[in-house]
Amino acid sequence: MLLVHSTEIGAASYGRALREGTLVALTRSIATPLDIPLSPGLRALALADQVPDAAVVTGLAGLWIMGAAALPLDIDVLRRTGSPHVARSSTAIERVRIHAGNPGTLPPHRVGTLLVASAPRCVADALRWSSLGTAITASWNALCAALVDDGTVRAELEHTPRDRTRRRADNAWAAVEEAFGQRAGHDSLLRAA
Question: Organism's domain of life (predicted)?
Answer without folding.
Answer: Bacteria
